[in-house]
Amino acid sequence: MSEKVRVMLSEEAVDKKIQEIGEQISRDYEGKQVHLVCVLKGGSFFMCELAKRITVPVSLDFMSVSSYGSETKSSGVVRIVKDLDEPLKDKDVLVVEDIIDSGRTLSYLLEMLRDRGPKSLKLCTLLDKPERRVVDVHVDYTCFQIPDEFVVGYGLDYDQRYRNLPYIGVVEFEDEEVID
Ligand SMILES: O=P(O)(O)OC[C@H]1O[C@H](OP(=O)(O)OP(=O)(O)O)[C@H](O)[C@@H]1O
Ligand SMILES: Nc1nc2[nH]cnc2c(=O)[nH]1
């Protein structure tokens, strides 16, 4: 089997949309400092590109989470693998994600972060697959709503590969040509 990646959203389309969302965030947070919280690993590429386009003061922090074991995965309970370095108390926090799928991770994570007392807490995602939603999550900024296909690129992986693609694509598998 060989793999190739079909482009779903070109680099130009993604860049243009991140610029627009960056401008919108800059307007919405005028006069404030926005504290971006990146959920690793997938959110890191989007976070860097977004941060460059925000014109109000920005601070950054990173966290890494993983779902508890396969049996409890559907509960949406997440374990903190790497916690934030700084408290969120009284900060205007914007969580930055690569994709919202079932909504389980973000629903749990937002509740956890809300308990830390931020002044405000909003969510920004590069991609959203609304058809896959199991748990309701309020998303404040969405770059693209996409159909239910497994996507890679711009931080999203397939078996840890393809995160570095500068566009969003779908991995397609093809049978190798048999040579006699
Ligand atoms: O809405 P959900 O169904 O909960 O899925 C969304 C989660 O899945 C992805 O992370 P992933 O577990 O692939 O980790 P990674 O970013 O380190 O690759 C994504 O970054 C979200 O955190
Ligand atoms: N890489 C990748 N991770 C996901 N996590 C939830 N949906 C997806 C997806 O489409 N691609």
TrEMBL record:
Keyword vocabulary terms for this entry: Cytoplasm, Glycosyltransferase, Magnesium, Metal-binding, Nucleotide-binding, Purine salvage, Transferase
Protein name per Swiss-Prot or TrEMBL: Hypoxanthine phosphoribosyltransferase
InterPro entries noted in UniProt: HGPRT, Hxn_phspho_trans, PRTase-like, PRTase_dom
EC numbers: 2.4.2.8
Family per similarity comment: Belongs to the purine/pyrimidine phosphoribosyltransferase family.
Phosphoribosyltransferase domain boundaries: 13-158
Gene3D superfamilies recorded: 3.40.50.2020
Pathway(s) of this molecule: Purine metabolism; IMP biosynthesis via salvage pathway; IMP from hypoxanthine: step 1/1; Purine metabolism; GMP biosynthesis via salvage pathway; GMP from guanine: step 1/1
Record's catalysed reaction(s): IMP + diphosphate = hypoxanthine + 5-phospho-alpha-D-ribose 1-diphosphate; GMP + diphosphate = guanine + 5-phospho-alpha-D-ribose 1-diphosphate
Function in brief: Purine salvage pathway enzyme that catalyzes the transfer of the ribosyl-5-phosphate group from 5-phospho-alpha-D-ribose 1-diphosphate (PRPP) to the N9 position of the 6-oxopurines hypoxanthine and guanine to form the corresponding ribonucleotides IMP (inosine 5'-monophosphate) and GMP (guanosine 5'-monophosphate), with the release of PPi.
Cofactor: Mg(2+)
Domain of life, per lineage: Bacteria
Organism per entry: Kineothrix sedimenti
PANTHER family per UniProt: HYPOXANTHINE PHOSPHORIBOSYLTRANSFERASE, HYPOXANTHINE-GUANINE PHOSPHORIBOSYLTRANSFERASE
Subcellular location: Cytoplasm
GO molecular function: glycosyltransferase activity
The keyword Amino-acid biosynthesis is annotated on this UniProt entry: no
